[in-house]
Specification:
9-stranded parallel sheet; 8-stranded antiparallel sheet; alpha+beta; Immunoglobulin-like; hydrolase; Glycosyl hydrolases family 31-domain-containing protein
């Protein structure tokens, strides 16, 4: 959803990123801690840490007594917890963040080793098998005193600081380490984080903002993957580090001047230091080990892998229905139709406008979709409209007030902000009645006629358009500050597409698409709208609040993290707002989206226990993937954002939220034919495939241009053929936590030249995608991993790629074509005939594609179930799990599981066969130039073990 944050920040005078850096003047005097009272066990140790000298009270009050708990939880996972001995600091509540239970290992069994110095206390984690130090707070490789600053952010000291409102811990890393993660972020440096002298400063404070680069955005993910390759690139090892904390924070990655090492420094606004270390040693293993801790991703319904279409600006149900008809008329597959807030009455959750989206018409429309095997998803915003009088019978608000489910002010009055409906209140996901109340609202909406297949959770950072509880003392009968939306008079979206060419569009500047005049050059350029903020609201945002026996500055913490809006309460719930259990917004702000996702998932599951909930959400946190997927937010119709979408998808594989994708063709501004053509092709190869754009911009449904429709049909044909492969990868993610989409080095970890590649990616182990990411070209450069020891074949022609080992190869890529290649040794189960919907596609027989390696072998597996059932209490689903093994000219199919597979394998294609088969016939052909054997007319029953020979 488009937001008005840019204008608001400007009017507030919010300083640019990094301008708020604070030098404490006394962090360097912080004394550190001394370890004593050590108790060692086979599975770890317990100890006390005592302040080693005079308190420095740099950004709060030094906590004198800490507890250190080290636990070898599994052979590849180590936990190091440093917490205040009194237990007053905020930690993630176990009730909402369950971790694996009864998992204790021993130090001897672990490849991770915890080491420490007692005075001053420092610790380091090493790898037993190699002796490599993975995390090191001794800082022996760094200068004795800080010698550099990061873009104006002083490195005042590397001291270990533990205060009520400021925690600091620093670890040295190998110089120019390969670090990935620490988001959510759109990093101009790419998927690999910049750790050079200027380095990276990443802030964790969820905010509603239109996709800026190098700043904090919607979610917070304090986890990183580090990958080390030796100098000759023949051996490697990866590990991951997770800080289990919701605290607002800065993290610094940099290489101090004169140092022979780099560093990572955490600066947190509170909480505790709860670290988990994962041994890997492969990137995929390290990511999976992280997933085993935070929760494996939710099961995804089969239909969710289809193509989704949405727009902010479908003004009524007839216009929405028209898009469905136009897509079918153009032969462009459409699986799921969405609606944005246009559908709401008075822009309120769980409503439909009686004039433009009458409930009877909506019920009929959704039934039409279902009859055609299609699905419907509406939006749910995070804030609930506040009613101004007793005659305004808005049930979610009235019921919520009765049940005490909303966030409050420190004086226990209801916190009232402002979002799309005007004055709004915000669910307190920690309150005991919220889950039932939220579930009731969802069920009532569904029962009324909005029979959705999934839900779209937006604005859940949470977003509020005023600072502080702006409606608490106001006259609620008055209209709140009006919001000028894109497309409104005076706020037209008239920027020319990035690919604008006067030779094509004409000197008048009038842009014509398929013969329809869209806009002229006499309109004004749009800008983001903003709100004036009264002085009394700004003053109200500086209130103090009490916690336990200490006074904390809740709204202006002494250390200023680098929130892109400056003040932490801008465009969100004020940090002194209160929640159930004594929680305050300052501590739980980063959890709002996660808690909504959890609550919504459980509500959907309660409503339909046998059906998999499907959610797409904007704000995320570690463990979100267990409940929801994610889209990459309010991006721009620019080529740069097409490129950024790839690193975004890769980030969220690391974060264990694999169902992810961008607003294809861009959300903000006006796209053009070429950009949309290339983007529709690219997004067909990422998990969540949706086209969505803003109100008032050029229409960009793929049928609008003939070339885009053609490119989309071609890309979807490949995507739908690969659905059994996609589905198997996601079943593995939900059971084993292995990531479906991968950076190239994740599959080829010994090849150092791949560490910075983020404009190509792999689907699983076997499919390589090389999209075009620049305009006005008909080819693309891509590297083929394996250093010449892997044979790559073109998906479309099955020809072997003549690739140069270890460097780029130029590929033909005319408009509408995206290069896709298959790795040798792969056995892929495919749909033989992609249909208009996933149901139609699944109804056709299967095919097998076998790409033999140099020894004539191939291997693959497939997972099949009904595509919609949710795991029962035992965590299982009726399924059929298949393995395909090829050797000596024979295919062996073996299976397990009771699920009945109705479709047989009708065709087998074998690549890499060097000699003609002996049984060539009408149904068995051989093409020597491709080394391809085609076996047709089959009816292999996947419910039975079988073999097939062509030698």
């Amino acid at each position: 959803m488009f937001t008005v944050s840019a204008g608001l920040a400007l009017l507030l005078g919010a300083a640019p990123l990094l301008a708020h850096a604070q030098s404490s003047g006394n962090v360097s005097s912080c004394p550190g801690y001394t370890l004593d009272g050590l108790q060692e066990t086979a599975s770890g140790l317990l100890a006390q840490l005592s302040l080693a000298g005079k308190p420095c009270n740099a950004f709060g009050t030094d906590i004198a007594n800490l507890t250190l708990a080290v636990t070898y939880e599994t052979p590849d996972r180590l936990r190091v917890l440093i917490a205040d001995a009194a237990g007053a600091q905020f930690m993630l509540p176990e009730a909402y963040f369950p971790r694996p239970t009864n998992e204790t290992s021993t130090e001897d069994a672990s490849d991770l080793v915890f080491n420490y110095d007692a005075q001053p206390f420092a610790f380091w984690v090493s790898r037993r098998s190699t002796g490599d130090v993975l995390f090191d707070t001794r800082l022996v490789s760094l200068p004795a005193a800080p010698t550099t600053a990061l873009d104006g952010t002083p490195l005042d000291s590397f001291a270990f600081v533990f205060e009520d409102q400021y925690l600091q811990l620093t670890s040295s890393l190998p110089r120019d380490a390969n670090v990935y993660g620490l988001g959510e972020v759109i990093a101009t440096s790419g998927f690999r984080r910049d750790i050079a002298e200027n380095g990276t400063l990443q802030t964790w404070w969820a905010r509603d903002v239109t996709d800026p680069t190098n700043e904090n955005i919607y979610g917070a993910h304090p986890v990183y993957l580090e990958h080390r390759v030796d100098t000759n690139g023949t051996a490697s090892a990866a590990h991951a580090v997770f800080l289990s904390s919701a605290a607002g924070a800065d993290v610094v990655l940099t290489t101090p001047a004169g140092a022979n090492a780099s560093l990572v420094q955490y600066r947190m606004l509170g909480g505790v230091l709860d670290f988990y270390f994962f041994a890997g040693p492969t990137p995929v293993a390290a990511v999976a080990q992280y997933g085993a801790l935070v929760g494996t991703p939710a099961w995804v319904p089969y239909w969710a892998f289809g193509f989704h279409l949405c727009r902010w600006g479908y003004l009524d149900v007839n216009e929405t229905r028209e898009q469905v008809a136009n897509m079918r008329a153009a032969g462009v597959p459409l699986e799921v139709m969405w609606n944005d807030i246009d559908m709401y009455h008075a822009r309120r959750d769980f409503t439909t406008d009686p004039t433009s989206f009458p409930i009877d018409e909506m019920r009929t429309f959704i039934e039409e979709l279902a009859a055609n095997g299609q699905h419907y998803i509406p939006i749910v915003d995070a804030a609930i409209g506040h009613t101004a009088n007793d005659t305004d019978n808005y049930f979610p608000f009235i019921s919520g007030i009765e049940k005490n489910v909303f966030v409050t002010n420190p004086d226990n009055t209801t916190y009232i902000g402002q979002v799309w409906p005007g004055y709004t209140v915000f669910p307190d996901w920690f309150a005991p009645n919220t889950e039932g109340w939220w579930g009731e609202a969802i069920t009532n909406w569904s029962d009324s006629g909005i029979e959705f297949s999934g839900l779209w959770l937006d604005m859940n950072e949470a977003s509020s358009f005023c600072v502080g509880s702006c409606g608490t003392t106001g006259n609620l009968s008055d209209t709140t500050t009006p919001v000028s939306l894109p497309g409104d008079p005076g706020n037209l979206v008239t920027d020319y597409p990035e690919g604008y060419n006067s030779a094509i569009w004409g000197p008048s500047g009038n842009i014509t698409i398929n013969g329809t005049l869209t806009f002229g050059n006499d309109t004004v350029v749009a800008s983001s709208a903003g709100f004036a903020v009264p002085d009394d609201e700004l003053a109200a945002s500086t209130q103090f609040g009490k916690r336990a026996d200490t006074l904390r500055n809740l709204n202006v913490p002494p250390y200023t993290i680098h929130n892109g809006f400056g003040d932490l309460s801008v465009h969100t719930i004020a940090t002194n707002a209160t929640h159930a259990n004594g929680f305050v917004e300052l501590d739980v702000h980063n959890l709002f989206g996660y808690m909504e996702e959890r609550t919504t998932h459980l509500a959907l599951l309660k409503n339909q226990p046998d059906r998999r909930p499907f959610l797409i959400s904007r704000s995320t946190f570690p463990s979100t993937g267990h409940w929801s997927g994610h889209w990459l937010g309010d991006n721009f119709s620019k080529w740069a954002y097409l490129r950024y979408s790839i690193q975004g998808v890769l980030q969220f594989q690391l974060y264990q939220i694999p169902m992810v994708g961008a607003d294809t063709c861009g959300f903000i501004g006006n796209t053009d034919e070429e950009l949309c053509n290339r983007w529709m092709s690219l997004s067909a190869f990422v998990p969540f495939y949706r086209n969505h754009n803003q109100r008032g911009a050029l229409s960009q449904e793929p049928y609008r241009w003939d070339s885009v429709a053609e490119a989309t049909r071609a890309a979807i044909a490949v995507r739908y053929a690969l659905l059994p492969y996609w589905y198997t990868l996601f079943a593995n993610a939900s059971t084993l936590a292995t990531p479906p989409v991968r950076a190239l080095f994740w599959n080829f970890p010994d090849e150092a030249e791949l560490l910075g590649v983020d404009l190509q990616f792999m689907i699983g182990d076997n499919v390589l995608v090389t999209p075009v990411t620049a305009p006005n070209v008909s080819n693309v450069d891509g590297i083929f991993p394996g250093r010449g020891n892997v044979v790559w074949r073109d998906w479309y022609t099955h020809e072997i790629v003549n690739a140069t080992a270890g460097t780029n190869t130029t590929l033909d890529a005319p408009l509408g074509h995206i290069p896709v290649h298959i790795r040798d040794g792969a056995a892929l189960l495919l749909h033989i005939q992609p249909g208009y919907t996933t149901n139609e596609t699944r109804a056709a027989p299967y095919a097998l594609l076998l790409a033999l390696d140099g020894t004539g072998a191939a291997f693959g597996n497939a997972y099949i179930d009904d595509g919609v059932s949710n795991p029962g209490v035992d965590g299982t689903i009726a399924n059929r799990s298949l393995t395909f093994t090829v050797g000596n000219g024979t295919l062996s199919v073996r299976g397990a599981g009771e699920f009945k597979v109705l479709q047989p394998v009708a065709r087998v294609t074998v690549l890499g066969v060097s000699t003609p088969p002996t049984n060539v016939s009408e149904n068995v052909t051989y093409e020597a130039d491709l080394g391809r054997v085609n076996i047709t007319g089959l009816a292999l029953d996947l419910n039975e073990d079988t073999t097939l020979s062509w030698a």
